[in-house]
Write a structure and sequence with these properties.
about 30% helix; Arc Repressor Mutant, subunit A
Length: about 140
């Protein structure tokens, strides 16, 4: 049985090809955030603001290789699929998307992604000072 060949990125796609040193100085595996052409051309995606579109790209980056909620909720058997991901103001600040001063804008934009059918908030961490758990959704296809 053959092993799956590890993907290496082209020079124009990545800094180093398979791993890099992130903003915190830690070695991190390279990941990508693929978006299909049909989604880019969908009515739902076209109606998002530019900031909401780039936020979705960063949400999609959580799909591959990032810390998943399944480790936190393993005992309860919750959020075990790869479609679940964390996103909060700390992560948005790390990416340089939003600041604590405009954290309300982040949550407004996440709600817009929910309304458009790209993500769903599965668990709000607001009451317990935990990270929100989101899930990718295909409801955006219903927009026509």
């Amino acid at each position: 049985m053959s092993r799956k060949k590890k993907h290496t990125y082209r020079d124009f796609e990545s800094v180093t090809g398979s791993s890099f040193v992130n903003q915190k100085g830690k070695l991190q595996a390279e990941t990508s955030a693929n978006i299909c052409e049909s989604m880019l051309q969908s009515k739902a995606f076209r109606e998002l603001t530019p900031k909401q579109k780039i936020l979705y790209v960063y949400c999609k980056a959580q799909y591959y290789g990032k810390r998943k909620p399944k480790k936190n909720y393993e005992k309860q058997g919750l959020f075990q699929a790869d479609e679940y991901f964390f996103f909060n103001i700390g992560l948005a600040e790390e990416y340089g998307l939003y600041t604590m001063a405009n954290h309300k804008r982040l949550y407004t934009d996440l709600k817009a992604l929910e309304k458009a059918g790209f993500i769903r908030c599965e668990k709000s961490g607001k009451g317990h000072k935990e990270k929100n758990v989101y899930c990718f959704s295909d409801e955006w296809k219903k927009w026509g």
